[in-house]
Design a protein that fits this description.
This protein has 39 residues and is an all-alpha fold. It contains 2 helices and no strands. This is DUF2887 domain-containing protein.
Length: 39
């Protein structure tokens, strides 16, 4: 994730941030986990 390193760090530190930005977060937002898996 070389190009998206800022977003990677941001969502790694605060995975719930994405759902805080949504007007209606999904019910399972608390179970969300951010992973960047290299293939």
């Amino acid at each position: 994730m070389r190009r998206d390193s800022i977003f990677y760090k941001l969502f790694q530190q605060s995975p719930s941030l994405l759902f805080e930005l949504l007007s209606e977060p999904p019910a399972n937002a608390q179970a969300y986990r951010f992973d960047a898996v290299a293939v």
